[in-house]
Amino acid sequence: MAKLYFYYGAMGSSKSANALMVDYNYQERGQKALLCKTGTDTRDGKNKIRSRIGLEKECMLLQDVCMMSDEQLAEYDAVICDEAQFAKTEQIDFLAHIVDYLNIPVLCYGLRTDFQMNFFEGSARLMAVADDIREIKTVCWCGRKAICNARYNEHGIIRQGSQIFLGANDSYIALCRKHFLEGKLTPEDPGDACRNQQISLEEIQDPDTDK
Ligand SMILES: [Zn+2]
């Protein structure tokens, strides 16, 4: 029986590389996988999955896959979807339909949570309906498992903002929960508590004389 798989991991956990390797494995066995990604992240060119280690391949967009007929889909031995966190609930449900009615395995790769540790729509739906949920692990600078995707800039971790912010790769770092909550981006980083203290000290030392 085919299954709906959700492989989740923090940023930098080689999800795209894994997706491309699975696609290659199908190809090597003389089988055909339908490779796709959600349309939100278009930094890499609209129809391409690219991993940090240099692998890349043309792909379809999930929104176009969802327009395909069962007859068209039946030509494939598997469906592989990258950036699945950005999928809509209905799109994940369509992937479940492919599994249940066409008996084609669907492998989804994506982030579990956003920069505030809330689910994305696609990951929430996959957590709810996938048959098989597996973690692709990566580590924080301290060696513990990284499960948080911290958005940051030169002032430290950014806690507020819109859920989807497609900046350069250097806008995000994967941290363990403890260091995410403390706001420690590196071993030397004093963290949020110290940063906030510094700000209030500056306010005290440099009072606004206009008030
Ligand atoms: Zn850590």
Low-confidence parts lasting 5 or more residues at pLDDT below 50? Answer: none
- The protein's oligomeric status is single chain
* CATH fold type of the largest domain: Rossmann fold
Shape: elongated
SSE blueprint and pairings:
Elements: E1 4-8, H1 15-28, E2 33-37, E3 48-50, E4 56-58, E5 60-61, H2 62-65, H3 70-73, E6 78-82, H4 89-102, E7 106-110, H5 121-129, E8 132-135, E9 148-153, E10 156-158, E11 172-175, H6 177-182, H7 191-205
Parallel strand pairs: 1-7, 1-8, 2-5, 2-6, 6-7
Antiparallel strand pairs: 3-4, 9-10, 9-11
This protein binds zinc ion.
Core attributes:
alpha/beta, 7 helices, three-stranded antiparallel β-sheet, six-stranded parallel β-sheet, Wheat Germ Agglutinin (Isolectin 2), domain 1, 211 residues, 2 domains, binds zinc ion, single chain, Rossmann fold
Kindly describe this structure:
- The protein is an alpha/beta fold.
- It folds into 2 domains: 1-136, 3-Layer(aba) Sandwich (Rossmann fold), CATH 3.40.50; 139-206, Wheat Germ Agglutinin (Isolectin 2), domain 1 (2-Layer Sandwich), CATH 3.30.60.
- It has 7 helices and 11 strands.
- It is elongated and about 65 Å long.
- The model has no long low-confidence stretch (mean pLDDT 90).
- Residues 140, 142, 144, 175-176, 178-179 line the site of zinc ion (ZN).
